[in-house]
Amino acid sequence: MIAGLLGLALLAGLGYALRWRSNPSPCPYAQRHAINFPRPVITRSRLRDVLQPRSGERLLEVGPGTGYYTGMAAQAIEPSGTLHAVDVQSEMVEHLRTRMRREGTQNVEPIRGDARSLPYPDDAFDAAYLVLVLGEIPDQERALDELERVLKPDGRLVVGESLPDPHFVGFEGLRRRVERRGLAFDARVGTRAGYFVRFDVSPSGEPTDSVE
């Protein structure tokens, strides 16, 4: 009896995951507690190592949610740097604004916006990052175009992915898609099941040396 119920629950969960994967959408605000769980592979310290944020830079975070990585990145670019955090859900934006105010972080600008049409001019940011977000965007290609557009000629893009996220984006396919846009693979940390990867905007269009 118990085994049968567990089997049904597993099938139901699998069916939900498959439907969610075939219909990309952000994590609902009602389920926000799930995105605050520890992330053993895609940790804050690893993101900082790959992103290499520097004081005074202007950074972009796409899909910050409740701000799992936001405070770390904002602190790294103090005192004169600014982090723009763009989320498509107004509830997440307000949650993040409240959290940053409570933590005393003053250099974060939470903004409601769509990754497929970022509200910024060309060459606006030194670096951009998105973690567990790309697969949730209905038009990933357009989002990648937008990220390339708003990055400065010497800018950096970091993407983080990890299973069991139903919207997981594999590294090999992502690398091909990003390199077609003129960004060069620079570094990767993690495993096939969870990783951060960094791409650099190459003004000449030539790839840089990779660092594993």
TrEMBL record:
Keywords: Methyltransferase, Transferase
Keyword match Transferase: yes
Any one Gene Ontology molecular-function term assigned to this protein's record: S-adenosylmethionine-dependent methyltransferase activity
Keyword field contains Plastid: no
Pfam family, one: Methyltransf_11
CDD domains to which the protein is assigned, alphabetical: AdoMet_MTases (cd02440)
The Methyltransferase type domain, residue ranges: 60-159
Domain of life: Archaea
GO biological process: one example: methylation
Name the record gives this protein: Methyltransferase type 11
Gene source species: Natrinema versiforme JCM 10478
